[in-house]
Amino acid sequence: MSCVKPTAEQLAAAPDLTIPDVIAPGLRVLFCGINPGLWSGATGHHFARPGNRFWPALHLSGFTPRQLQPEEQEELLAFGLGITNVVDRTTARADELTAEEYRDGGLALRERVERLRPQALAVLGIGAYRVAFDAPKAVVGPQTASLGGTAVWVLPNPSGLNAHYTLAAIADRFRELREATSQS
Fold first, then answer.
1. Which regions in the chain score pLDDT beneath 70?
2. pLDDT of amino acid 183
3. Nearest-CA neighbor of 152 among 20, 32, 22, 21?
4. Where does the record place the Uracil-DNA glycosylase-like domain (predicted)?
5. CB environment 144-156: b (16+ within 10 A), e (fewer)
6. What is the CATH code for 18-182?
7. Which residue pairs from 48-54 have beta carbons closer than 8 angstroms and sit at least 24 positions apart in sequence?
8. How far is residue 123's CA from residue 177's CA, in Å, rounded to a whole number?
9. Fewest CB within a 10 Å sphere: which of 7, 10, 29, 97?
10. What residues contact 106, with CB distance under 8 A and at least 6 apart?
11. Active-site residue, 35 included
12. CA atoms of 6 and 84, how far apart (whole Å)
């Protein structure tokens, strides 16, 4: 099973759309992307673009027993996992977002976390985290600051555009988070 490829017309209509979060109260981990890409906007599924390494990394790290496809995103809830974004609107690239959008998104994300109270928030992208949370020196991994009782982690962006991390390296970082949230 794989996500149906959107048409050129669907992709052209996708900028500035939003897609629903996959969330519930009391999740083990709330994964937070930077913002949805055009494939996600066109399909309505998070991390939908072929080449995005979110779904393979989630499986390789042991969070899921098999690799889920984007259209199976609702199944994450059964594993205590969810997905949201720092910025809701779709763009072709994250560099199309403004610092103000990141800061506003960070405030909205704080409110979402306070309401849902996940065990951990995993922001997938160091640059987005630094701007959204005014933490210019943050590094990948667990953060010293928490949001209420929610641990905050910054993990590599799984986009295929992020050449700094291999799939194996992303999966290793996801595994560290899985192991940390298993012990609580």
1. 1-3, 183-184
2. 66
3. 32
4. 20-178
5. eeebeebbbbbbb
6. 3.40.470.10
7. 48/3, 49/159, 49/160, 50/2, 50/3, 51/159, 51/160, 52/158, 52/159, 52/160, 53/158, 53/159, 53/160, 53/167, 53/170, 54/124, 54/158
8. 11
9. 7
10. 86, 131, 132, 133, 134
11. yes
12. 22
**Which DSSP letter does residue 30 get?**
E
Q: Tell me, what amino acid is at 139?
A: V
pLDDT at 162: 77
| Token pair of 52 as six digits | 């995005």
Task: Point out the catalytic residue in the list 35, 52, 85, 157.
Answer: 35
pLDDT of 164: 86
Element (H, E) at 124: strand 120-124
Is 85 considered catalytic here? no
Strand order in the sheet with 29-33: 81-85, 29-33, 120-124, 151-155, 141-142
- CA dist 26 and 118 (Å) reads 5
Distance (Å, whole) CA 62 – CA 32 = 18
Do 18 and 36 form a contact (C-beta atoms < 8 A)?
A: yes
Q: How many CB atoms lie within 10 A of CB 129?
A: 28
